[in-house]
UniProtKB/TrEMBL annotation:
Binding site for Zn(2+): H35, H37, H224, D316
Protein name per UniProt: Adenosine deaminase
Family the UniProt entry places it in: Belongs to the metallo-dependent hydrolases superfamily. Adenosine and AMP deaminases family. Adenosine deaminase subfamily.
Gene: add
Reactions catalysed: 2'-deoxyadenosine + H2O + H(+) = 2'-deoxyinosine + NH4(+); adenosine + H2O + H(+) = inosine + NH4(+)
Length: 378
């Protein structure tokens, strides 16, 4: 062997050709996640323990296995509105400093164990005030939990960077207040701002003052749009609100015509989204559960990817969808025949679209993602 050749620990796969694209190897691949809800990713065992500690007696099951199954089955409603009702139980046990810190810490640990090297995790501080915490205290305890989780993951040899997104509920009237909170804590771990909740009847343009505040302060934000309500919500999020990214955005496919010969024609909105490289935070399993698409195999992810939209792979709610980044990537690879180079592209798309400072994005792409996929590509 040439003395100048440095053999990596995973050199057997690298020297013998591409590694098999299976769940085990996908879990080893470095991944980036932009759309993950903190209150949608709890461990079932943690929900049970926190419920016992805080005196919440409304859980529909008394053991972790049954509770996890209940969340998954209840979320399989085909309706965004019914899907959102499952969050009443997780939010109920996230009302104390200890509960918020634990959930955030475990979130970072779980994502890192799945090979996620960067994640933006979102939640709505206004939903965690029932036990007397202030908005600032909610943010501070959650950020402390993320820091603890990052430290534990680093000690385990799986370093991860967590950026926090503060969400305002679109049916409420606190979006400007939450936007101000996001700017106040942006140097302490808050990466940006978001609005979420029922789309129908609650257009993003209702929150223009919040988005104008974010833009005035050179701060990042994303908007849940194009999941349940279609093209009008996407248009408003972009044209009126100036969003950096589209949370889901899956219904942009409604502005794409597929001709009999297979050729695709893009409408004006779809062309604009593609031309401007506006990132799509696509969540395949969740989109099936809420009825946005019929199945992963019928998800427009592949159409959008082949048309070179800025597609990213996301979990949305790991508890409700019984999923992980590795599972989402494996489902897409199985459905559409993707290889390692495709998964690498989706990962780089996510990092390019992240709210990290540019130099940090570049470092993760060049020093972590590309070397990690070189090993798997062989």
């Amino acid at each position: 062997m040439d003395d100048d050749l440095t053999v990596a620990p995973d050199s057997a796969a690298r020297l013998s050709g591409p590694a098999p694209l299976d769940m085990q190897n996908i879990a080893r691949a470095p991944k980036a996640l932009l759309h993950d809800h903190l209150d949608g990713g709890l461990r079932p065992s943690t929900v049970l323990e926190l419920a016992s500690e805080c005196g919440y007696d409304g859980l529909p099951a008394s053991d972790a296995e049954s509770l996890g199954r209940w969340f998954r089955d209840a979320a399989d409603s085909g309706s965004l509105e019914l899907y959102l009702e499952t969050f009443a139980h997780t939010v109920a046990v996230m009302q104390t400093a200890e509960g918020l810190q634990r959930v955030a810490r475990e979130c970072a640990e779980d994502l890192a164990a799945d090979g996620v090297v960067y994640a933006e995790v979102r939640y709505a501080p206004e939903q965690h005030l029932e036990k007397g915490l202030t908005l600032d205290e909610v943010v501070e305890h959650t950020l402390e939990g993320f820091r603890q989780g990052e430290s534990a993951a680093r000690a385990a040899g799986r370093p991860i960077v967590i950026g926090c997104l503060l969400t305002a509920m679109r049916h409420a009237a606190r979006s400007r207040e939450i936007a101000e909170l996001a700017v106040r804590y942006r140097d302490q771990g808050v990466a940006g701002f978001d609005i979420a909740g029922k789309e129908a009847g609650f257009p993003p343009s209702r929150h223009l003052d919040a988005f104008e505040y974010m833009r005035a302060n050179n701060a990042h934000f994303t908007i849940h749009a194009g999941e349940a309500f279609g093209l009008p919500s996407i248009h408003e999020a972009i044209a009126f609100c100036g969003t950096d990214r589209l949370g889901h955005g899956v219904r942009i496919v409604d502005d794409i015509t597929i001709n009999a010969d297979g050729a695709r024609e893009l409408g004006q909105l779809a062309n604009y989204v593609r031309d401007k490289r506006i990132p799509l935070e696509l969540c395949p399993s969740s989109n099936v559960q809420t009825g946005a698409v019929a199945s992963v195999e019928e998800h427009p992810f592949d159409i959008l990817a082949r048309l070179r939209f800025r597609v990213t792979v996301n979990t949305d709610n790991r508890l409700m969808s019984d999923t992980s980044m590795s599972k989402e990537m494996y489902r897409l690879a199985t459905a559409f025949g993707y290889g390692w180079s495709d998964l690498e592209r989706f990962t780089i798309n996510a990092l390019k679209s992240s709210f990290l400072p540019f130099d940090q994005r570049l470092a993760l792409i060049d020093d972590v993602v590309k070397p990690g996929y070189r090993v798997l590509l062989g």
